[in-house]
Amino acid sequence: MNHVKQAKRTTIYDLAELAGTSASAVSAVLNGNWKKRRISSQLAEKITKIAEEQGYALNMQASLLRREKSHIIGMIVPKYDNRYFGSIVELFEDMARARGLFPIITCTRRDPELEIEAARTMLSYQVECLVATGATDPDKITEMCAAAGVRSLNLDLPGALAPSVISDNFAGARELTRRILMNCEKRLGKKEPLLFIGGRGSDHNTAERIRGWRQAHADLGVPVEEDLILACGYAPEKAEKALEAMALKGNAVSGGMFVNSTISLEGVIRWIRRSGDLDDRNLVLGCFDWDPFVTLLGNGIEMVRQDVPGMLAKVFEIIESGESKPQVVKLPPIFIN
Amino acid sequence: MNHVKQAKRTTIYDLAELAGTSASAVSAVLNGNWKKRRISSQLAEKITKIAEEQGYALNMQASLLRREKSHIIGMIVPKYDNRYFGSIVELFEDMARARGLFPIITCTRRDPELEIEAARTMLSYQVECLVATGATDPDKITEMCAAAGVRSLNLDLPGALAPSVISDNFAGARELTRRILMNCEKRLGKKEPLLFIGGRGSDHNTAERIRGWRQAHADLGVPVEEDLILACGYAPEKAEKALEAMALKGNAVSGGMFVNSTISLEGVIRWIRRSGDLDDRNLVLGCFDWDPFVTLLGNGIEMVRQDVPGMLAKVFEIIESGESKPQVVKLPPIFIN
DNA sequence: TTGAAAGCGCTAACAG
DNA sequence: CTGTTAGCGCTTTCAA
């Protein structure tokens, strides 16, 4: 209830003085280890009450400086604005807190420079562990962490130097492709080579998905066409432009389409809407990603939902086990339509 | 390139020893104020090189403890997993960094207890300013901050004790309602009272939107029906259940509908899909929120997109001005269909 | 042009 | 049962 703006924040010394005791007693009480110090519950109560009254807030910087463990866990993530990363971040925070860790998260917008700068900043904040999600150069981050004696893990995109938890992109893409091809047959009367759109050819997941896409074509005896692979990046505009360019070259955009993320799907659908109706175009879509509204788009778009709770459970399992040798854990994604 | 796992992290004392100089010199050089201290560029260079070699990372906790300003800015946010809050968070991080601030963000899942706990934690981390986004009890947070001599601002949901930046919910809802009613007339041949679904009656934004919804009905001479107001909460399941309950009571769900957020819209559309086709039901929808995929849902759903860049620009403007007396800044939202 | 030293607020021995 | 004390790693006078 004290609304006076104080130049100096209340410290344990202030509290000690008010309680007529010492700073160490205050510290012990406020940290909950006063039974260990056998402080009288009377004093404990008094201190707690005074702390409350004064609106005391621990100075974490000082506390951390003194303590050996920071209990801070960091995560870097490429984007917030889609369901996949949004749910990763939200669940990560939750699970971290449930384990008594303080999560700090930062978004790097798929910018390699920002990624390493973010990692360095996290190290400055004394993270005990850093989870690099969808990093472009995870090994660089692992090296930086290792040099500081900090554990790191990769999520979503694997690295060679630290444990990685990812989706089984090959198997997922293979099954997704199979489903799209079957839908083509059902709806268009024939299985035709699919378009692959979105993502970066250089990133591991996209490469694996293209591999699965090829395999499924082979499985079903459908030839693949190399110039139907448009790994144009993730942004909606890029997918939109890629389709436009394709159409301008005189290639009819029709048949089946494997879209590499909902981000790209946004651009794809925008292009479709701009240039004619989805139904009219006889398009059969599948997307290696999930968004609730896409389900509601209709047209039976096949989707793959990555197993975020499963992946994070694995991440924390590895963290808790203390394991730090490189290994890639692949989790099967979930199919939705 | 030193991959040896070190028990102790490299400190400026280690660097000083290696460079044959003192910690204070190292500190000055690494902070870039060595011209002020007139340190020889030779020494500066040497120190920089050694720091690089050793993979030195500043201990921010120690640095912050000593410094007077933390340059940390905090934000609490209810959810990550929708476009609105996702874009707020992403842009906030960006703008904070551009101003030399370190953003720390935490998600409180609309849990009032978590909110104040999160605020306390942020204070422990010595934030210089805290932005409370969509907080259930913003004034409580402002009080806590004030007691610690920390500035706070409210975003999305206003408070009485600190500057607040919000959308103009009344005007937005009024115009959105008007548009839905006009669409009803166009598509269904008549203007009928709209259903209002989603949100909490107790939250300011929902109350303002209901007020706008009423006003628009009055403007167009359409009577409102009180039991068409279903402020059932935000979660998709809640909207879905509310519609189900309404249908079970024998009330036909048809005509126009004002949906209070995309989160709720998810449940609404799910219910529609489960219980018949959107087109068949003659539903005319509007949503006080925006999601790119909703545009692509078709059916001409009217949407309101809140002006996130505008709101954050205003937030930082207020922060930079040092202003801290209560005021509510309302930004007009943008209409999309 | 540089180094020594004090101290930020807290925790954890250790000494009563 | 409780207080004193020694730092954690860094920044910043102050003195040289």
Question: How would you characterize this protein structure?
Answer:
- Two copies of one chain form a homodimer.
- The first copy, chain A, is of the alpha/beta class and about 325 residues long.
- Helix content of chain A is about 45%, strand content about 15%.
- Chain A has helices at about 10-20, 25-30, 40-55, 60-65, 85-100, 110-125, 140-145, 170-190, 205-220, 235-250, 260-275, 290-295, 310-320; strands at about 70-75, 100-105, 130-135, 150-155, 165, 195, 200, 230, 230-235, 255-260, 285, 300-305, 325-330, 335.
- The structure holds a DNA duplex (16 and 16 nucleotides).
Q: Which keywords apply here?
A:
13 helices, Rossmann fold, 337 residues, disordered N terminus, 2 domains, elongated, DNA-binding, 6-stranded parallel beta sheet, alpha/beta, homodimer
Task: Please count the beta strands of chain A (DSSP E, at least 2 residues each).
Answer: 14
Mean pLDDT of chain A: 90
List the domain count of chain A as a whole number. Answer: 2
Give the structural class of chain A.
alpha/beta
Write the layout of secondary structure elements.
The structure is a homodimer of 337-residue chains.
Chain A: H1 12-19, H2 23-30, H3 41-54, H4 60-66, E1 72-77, H5 83-98, E2 102-107, H6 112-124, E3 129-133, H7 138-147, E4 151-155, E5 163-167, H8 169-188, E6 195-197, E7 199-200, H9 204-219, E8 229-230, E9 232-233, H10 236-248, E10 255-259, H11 262-274, E11 283-287, H12 292-295, E12 302-305, H13 308-321, E13 327-331, E14 334-336
The structure holds a DNA duplex (16 and 16 nucleotides).
